[in-house]
């Protein structure tokens, strides 16, 4: 049975910080961010947006009523959990109005877990061919003011509907995972921002890419020439580019190399405007590729490198389905959408991104009315998060 991605949607925050403004404020040469990291802007989420509102918003854009009646599993992959116990997927299941006889869970392993979620979804559909599974990768990447990671923050969600006979991409059975117990990036329960060994993390990312790709090729007798594009986890686009250059086979025919290079550029377009969205970054790269490449054709194979600090990596692959373009937006309209975000000054970004809910002795907190997508965190009442649907006029 062919199983894979039938629909893919995306949502990000309604506010944006331009990298040049951040560079000027931190007395950094703007070229360091634009050329050194290949970043132009970062999405900034207010306190009324979280993994639930962003995830529900990404999914709402793609789901029909018939989908909601057939989804029997909702998986949220995240490392920005809002509760140690209750899964964000349960809130999202309710906000979207998915039929009740469903399993709703959360999965975690830094930026990697959405890849495991896709595999679990695939196994589930293998046993229950009429099921549809909603996989949402949702995160807010926050490193802290003035930290080396500050320039690689971001916020966003990618929602994917997994079905049999999918309209976008059939996922292959062959994949190769790799685990290493390392401390490159981690966030203990008592900290709202991660601890990061930045340079070490980039070395591990590149080494785990090389190790897993070498083993994948050996085990499955594949090479780069089998693929029309290679998508990477994108903590910042320059590191993905380094990864791409590391595996680029210099023996490949020039035309194949050029196509792969061209498609790599298409895959980083959205991340350059949004920053790191952790679990969703690889899939934002895939979406960017699919919506912007003009050379991709049905039947083309795509390779993907998933990486989550700590660390787990995986190489997995898929084949583009017949008519896949019909399921997707045009790249230009997605980029136009991103231009509608409200530009923040650095002072306003510092206030907004790091605002914490002020919970009183009764477990209540209320919030200013920031711009969000179709869902917002309204208040906290008796330690319970209360979400609301936002009307089209933002009320
Ligand atoms: P930094 O201080 O920006 O490092 O920190 P840098 O001094 O190496 O500068 C970056 C690049 O800018 C370099 O390019 C410089 O040469 C260049 P490169 O040499 O590497 O090609 N540069 C300039 N270019 C033009 N004009 C200039 C100029 N100045 C410098 N004037 C660091 C970089 C990655 C350490 C930092 O951003 C960080 O800590 N980020 C967070 C951690 C991270 O993203 N790690 C990536 C791998 S781990 C991962 O992917 C997992 C993750 O997503 C989390 C998860 O799994 O949950 C993070």
TrEMBL record:
The keyword 4Fe-4S does not apply. InterPro entries: HMG_CoA_synt_C_dom (IPR013746), HMG_CoA_synth_N (IPR013528), HMG_CoA_synthase_prok (IPR011554), Thiolase-like (IPR016039). Gene3D superfamilies: 3.40.47.10. It holds the Pfam family HMG_CoA_synt_C. Residues 5-164 form the Hydroxymethylglutaryl-coenzyme A synthase N-terminal domain. Keywords: Transferase. The keyword Disulfide bond does not apply. One of its GO terms (molecular function) is hydroxymethylglutaryl-CoA synthase activity. Residues 245-353 form the Hydroxymethylglutaryl-coenzyme A synthase C-terminal domain. One of its GO terms (biological process) is acetyl-CoA metabolic process. Belongs to the thiolase-like superfamily. HMG-CoA synthase family. PANTHER family: 3-HYDROXY-3-METHYLGLUTARYL COENZYME A SYNTHASE, HYDROXYMETHYLGLUTARYL-COA SYNTHASE. NCBIfam families: HMG-CoA-S_prok. This is Hydroxymethylglutaryl-CoA synthase.
